[in-house]
Every structure is written in C-alpha cells, then in structure tokens.
Design brief:
disordered N terminus; two-stranded antiparallel ribbon; about 260 residues; 9 helices; mainly alpha
C-alpha cells in the first residue's frame, strides 16, 4: 500500500454507545483478507495447486519479491524518518525502479536456467516438451507469487493492530479505513503483477520489443509509483480508484491479448 506507513489513529465508540466486541476485529480482518487475497487464492487453487512445479515456482517468486524488498529497505532504515512527506519521494522511486530491475533480472535468469533443465528432464523421463500452455502457466505462477507477496507483506505487518475494537485510519486518509484501502490495493497489485507477467508471455510469443510492450512490463512499477499519492491529504480517495481502474484495464487488456 502506501509508503511510508503513516501515523495510525484509532477511532473508538464512546462509552455512551453500545460496546464493540474485540472479536469484530477478527471478523473485519478476515473480510479484508478475503478482499485482498481471495481472488489470488482462487487462482492458486484452480490453476497452480495441482502442479507441484508451479507451486514451487509461485513460492519462489513470492520469496524473491519479499527478499528484494527487504534488502532494498534495510539501507533506508538508517535514515528514517526523513522529516517530511516529500523526503520519502526520491527514496521510494529509487526503490521501485531497483525492485523492477531485480524482478526482471531474476525472472530472465530463472527462465534461461529452466529452459534447458526442464526440457532435459522431459526428454529423460519421456515426457512431452514444454508447450506454450505450460509456459503461460509458469508466467502466471510467477506473477501471482509477486502479487501474493504484496498481500503477505501487508497482512503480516498489521496482524497485531488489526485485532481489537475500533477502526484504524491514517492521518492522511481519515475518510477511509486503513485496512480497506490496503486490502483493495493488494487486490489491485495482484491483478497488475499477474497481468504483467501474462503480457510478457504474449510478447515472447510475438517477439515484440515495442515501447508499448515496455510499458506493459513496467506496469507494476508505474502502479507502485502511483501510491505516492497516499502521502497527500485524502490522497487515498484518488489513488485507490485509479489503481482499481488501472488493474481492471490491465486484466481486460491481458484477456484481449491472450484471445488473439
């Protein structure tokens, strides 16, 4: 979601009103979890879970994304806080660009390694060679793993504060609950990451190297940069709908490209 995490403010019901049970926090957390990770879970269960190799590939993608994000964030920890919201812009953009470059390098390196190994294994055991459908599923698994990593990053970091009475808001977005915005953005990034990898699969088939193809592949970085708007007052009211529209457009464009 947003970077950095803003100061959290807890709004609770007054003593004169009805009491809110702490269990409602658990129910809300489950609801937000279903919003942010439900579609990814459905895709994983229907397209990935039955194939062990794709399961390993998905979790490898998830782990590599989290590892890269952690390595890039560690140097910034020595300089936090920067003092003002504008101080976070340049480090965030640099991290997004570096993360995108690492994503591409890791995927390209892995595909080159897999291309020879998988074909060799198939020939040794008498299996059929990797088809275009298999390649598409591998792209799907890798993109889904990166989208799941974003959701895991958010929910694991906020599990403790999500349980209890009251609703959490950020200082810069007092109109929309913090967990709702982050859950919706997690869903958007799952869609964007998965669509970007499937578009890359389509580009590999067409041998496309156009500027449009570059923009399609850089969609996760563009979407990540867009979240800088959350630093502005009520910026989430603009960023969240834009991310939803962006993600919807990516999914529609991906479906159109794959049907061609």
């Amino acid at each position: 979601g947003s970077f950095p995490t803003a100061v959290l403010c807890v709004r609770r019901r007054g003593s004169g009103g009805p009491k809110v049970r702490a269990a409602m926090g658990v129910v809300g957390t489950i609801g937000y979890l279903l919003i942010g990770c439900g579609p990814a879970g459905v895709i994983f269960a229907t397209r990935i879970a039955r194939r062990p190799f794709l399961v390993v590939l998905t979790f490898t993608s998830c782990a590599s994304w989290i590892l890269t994000a952690t390595v890039l964030a560690v140097p910034l920890a020595f300089f936090l806080p920067f003092g003002s919201e504008l101080g976070y812009v340049l480090p965030f953009v640099v991290c997004v660009v570096c993360h995108e470059l690492c994503r591409r390098v890791v995927w390209r390196t892995l595909t080159r390694w897999m291309a020879s190994r998988v074909d060799a294994i198939a020939s040794h055991f008498g299996y059929r060679k990797v088809s275009a459908g298999d390649s598409m599923n591998m792209h799907l698994a890798w993109g889904l793993g990166q989208g799941m990593a974003r959701g895991l990053f958010f929910f694991a970091a906020n599990t403790v504060v999500s349980v209890g009475p009251g609703t959490i808001y950020t200082k810069t977005c007092p109109a929309v609950p913090y967990f709702l915005t982050s859950a919706v953005m997690s869903l958007a990034f799952v869609s964007i990451h998965t669509s970007a990898m499937l578009l890359e699969f389509s580009q590999d088939l067409e041998r496309s190297n156009s500027f449009v193809a570059f923009l399609e592949g850089a969609a996760p970085a563009l979407a990540g940069t867009l979240t800088l708007g959350n630093l502005a007052n009520d910026g989430c009211l603009v960023v969240m709908p834009m991310l939803v529209v962006f993600a919807t457009g990516m999914v529609w464009h991906t479906g159109a490209r794959l049907r061609q």
